[in-house]
Amino acid sequence: FDPGSVEAADLTEANQLGRITLDDNRTSQNPDPAIHPNGGVFDLGNLFRGGDIVENVTGAMNYSFGKYRIQPTQGADYTPTNPRQASPDAVGGSLSVASFNVLNYFTTIDTGADICGPGESQGCRGADTVEEFERQRAKITAAIADINADVVGLIEIENFKAGGVDEPLADLVEGINDILGAGTYEAVETGPIGDDAIKVAFIYKPATVSLNGAYAVLDSSVDPTFNDDKNRPALAQTFTQLSNGESVTAVVNHFKSKGSNCDSLGDPDLGDGAGNCNLTRTSAAVALVNWLAADPTGSGEADVLIIGDLNSYDKEDPIDAILAGGYTDLVADFGGEFEYSFVFSGQWGYLDYAMANATLQSEVTGTTVWHTNADEADLLDYNTDFKALAQQAIYEPNAFRASDHDAVIVGLELDHTPPVVTAELVYDHGVFYTVSFSCVDDLDPNPTCEADINGVPVEDGQTVALVRNNGQARSWYEEGILRIKDSSFTLTVVGTDEHGNTATTITIL
Hints:
16% helix, seven-stranded mixed β-sheet, single chain
């Protein structure tokens, strides 16, 4: 629901009243072992995920740390109803684009530094030991290798370049290629973008796409209404599919989060549910739409795909601004209103988007969210902080809980060429003609082909009698022959391929 609406307030209250906190009947911090709601030890053989069901909880209720809690005296009945998917759902098409938040992927180890920016102090986020980084790297590379998209937009990668090399991005590409084979992915080399410690980036498969011209960056120098002190600069790149020469411009984003305030900008949290900095994100969204309309990569390509973490739920102002700019929310379009990619404080929604402009929308074959992260307990992540040794061992070098955001994957069948349409009225004798037409498309074997004469539908090969208003011929009374009487005759044939590209041919007699 729209922030500030009665419905949103009612839902917030219902969520608060409907929430029950199931504790573990222990008061020590991070005790070992971790306990599953079924009463057993939480480990790799006894996991749970968001969406699973717990029934018949038995215990005592108490109030502590601001919440009523149930302290169980025995295990509950547990039913796994949301199993893991080993791989994402198929999205179809001949080209795929994904968006993935890599959860502060820093090759420099976290030193706890107070200064955190490109070239200032490295290692201020992400892993804080070599062991943690190796665990993180194994998970992130496994996830991207499993997604296996032709183009991947990355969010939250370290904004750092050492010795002329974009080291974190190069390291990530190397790790993925160690799994999939040398040269499978390459990076769009940009160096640092903006002044934040993290940035957005692109990697791509050179075997399937090539870079069409240079990348482009949207920041405050391009449009002052895009505040890059708060939003990370946006990165656009046009990619050309090698198999057919068709292109798409993708732009990866990371808008300002809701967590810290924008009070100094006159953009406070209004308490309506949208959180901090709604106006700052909305201004960025409007600037993004305007920038993309001006073809920032200079490719002349009409198809545009917006991806990334917009830090806005789907009824909030920044999303409304992009929709008003002519874009379609593909996550909602294919996944429905209750799709999600992120969980916060026990509430599911999506902050991660794929949004297609009008010309691209008909070429989208599918969109899916791969639920490897939002539904998983964060005990499974790479971090070793606040975990006993036995809990640190509850770890797998796979895609699950590689990040806190789920990946969004889009399938595309880029086809800008409409069918080739031919049309002819072949004279037979007297007032009789044979209708002849065809529609042929290089990618769609069965394009739709519709024809009419003066609005009357006709079929290919059909014999028609075309009688002018002053015509005296009697042969058009011949049984089974379509008669059309008028002063002139127009055969119109419209060919439409599976992506909505159309071509029309008109023959006038």
